[in-house]
């Protein structure tokens, strides 16, 4: 074999090695550094979530839930909108079917959010993926998408940021129950607007120029129309699906 042929073969092997490395599971990291980065980055957002958690705790106290029940719900469900809907429907006996259906409709959006993470999470083991997804909320999902699309490839970022949300959410929910007898209406202190303000801040971070306006506009219009047509929280999933379809059509 000539020197030229040997060099060509080496070049081909180098290219194949690089390609296989890009697709290898270790191309996406999952370590303590990623968890720590996610936790620290999410702390300011978690503080905002805490305000919403206090509002939930107040509502839960008014519905008759104990501190232990609220703590257990927040620790295992970790979904603010769903938990508020559940306590608003709380009665004796509990309308289990109604609560489950309402919560299912609200949480359908997580299927879209999880799908968006697949390009990175497909490289991780099942226990790491599903363990991280348990702690996924709207806020830390947005932060994680920003981090991953920025090229960090820190697969543990979602877990770390989710842990920050979880700690503040559980603690603030319990605090809300404790002060429930003092605060009759969370809106009096602006606690009902905390989550809206948090999402506005996240939206600014996720803005990616004029191209972002098309799916966002489609989502907004679809959500507004759906709100007028269907009761409940169906506008959330409808807006998300419509935006995804619009983006696929636009790119094609």
UniProtKB/TrEMBL annotation:
Keywords from the named record: Cell membrane, Membrane, Transmembrane, Transmembrane helix, Transport
Broad class of where this protein is predominantly found: membrane
GO BP field: L-valine transmembrane transport
Membrane topology: Multi-pass membrane protein
Keyword check for Membrane: yes
Record's keyword annotation contains Transport: yes
A Pfam family: AzlC
Cellular-component GO terms for this entry: plasma membrane
Family affiliation: Belongs to the AzlC family.
Protein name: AzlC family protein
Organism: Haloarcula japonica (strain ATCC 49778 / DSM 6131 / JCM 7785 / NBRC 101032 / NCIMB 13157 / TR-1)
């Amino acid at each position: 074999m000539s020197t030229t042929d040997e060099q060509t073969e080496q070049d081909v092997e180098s290219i194949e090695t690089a390609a296989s490395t890009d697709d290898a599971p270790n191309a996406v990291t999952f370590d303590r550094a990623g968890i720590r980065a996610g936790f620290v980055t999410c702390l300011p957002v978690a503080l905002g979530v805490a305000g919403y958690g206090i509002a939930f705790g107040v509502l839960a106290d008014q519905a008759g839930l104990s501190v232990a029940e609220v703590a257990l719900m927040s620790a295992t469900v970790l979904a603010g909108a769903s938990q508020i809907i559940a306590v608003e429907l709380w009665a004796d006996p509990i309308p289990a079917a109604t609560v489950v259906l309402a919560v299912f409709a609200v949480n359908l959006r997580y299927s879209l959010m999880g799908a968006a993470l697949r390009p990175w999470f497909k490289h991780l083991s099942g226990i790491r993926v599903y363990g991280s997804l348990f702690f996924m909320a709207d806020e830390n999902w947005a932060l994680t998408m920003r981090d991953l699309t920025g090229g960090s490839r820190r697969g543990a970022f979602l877990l770390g940021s989710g842990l920050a949300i979880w700690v503040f959410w559980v603690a603030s929910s319990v605090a809300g129950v404790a002060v429930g007898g003092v605060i009759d209406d969370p809106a009096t202190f602006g606690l009902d607007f905390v989550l809206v303000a948090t999402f506005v801040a996240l939206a600014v971070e996720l803005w990616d120029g004029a191209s972002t306006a098309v799916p966002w506009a489609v989502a907004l219009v679809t959500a507004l129309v759906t709100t007028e047509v269907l009761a409940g929280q169906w506008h959330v999933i409808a807006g998300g699906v419509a935006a995804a379809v619009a983006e696929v059509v636009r790119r094609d």
